[in-house]
Design brief:
It contains three helices and five strands; from the N terminus they run βββββααα. The N and C termini lie far apart (about 35 Å). By secondary structure, it is of the alpha+beta class. It is globular and about 45 Å long. Strands 4-3-5 form a three-stranded antiparallel sheet. A two-stranded antiparallel ribbon has the order 1-2.
Length: about 90
């Protein structure tokens, strides 16, 4: 039997994709800090977004991350995420 691939839903576009195709946005358990979790292993609540800037912007517009983390997210956090996103894309 083939191994089941865990699917995750993008908070931007709502598409289901495998974990490998997505980036995990993390709300840290200790200090409620929100950042990109590139390893996918950090402790805390995770939400997934496609590896495209469009999806991050959609998540910002439709408040996808706010719903996932059940808290309001200031614009600076989204700006920081977009910056981290660009740095990853540049690699």
């Amino acid at each position: 039997m083939a191994k089941k691939i865990p699917l995750r839903q993008c908070v931007g576009c709502g598409e289901m994709k495998s974990k490998k195709e997505m980036l995990r946005v993390l709300k840290a358990a200790e200090d409620d800090r929100i950042c990109l979790d590139t390893s996918g292993k950090k402790n805390g609540r995770g939400a997934y977004v496609c590896k495209s800037r469009e999806c991050l912007q959609k998540a910002r517009k439709n408040k996808g991350l706010e719903r996932s983390f059940k808290m309001s997210i200031p614009n600076e956090v989204y700006d920081a995420l977009e910056k981290e996103f660009d740095e990853l894309a540049a690699e």
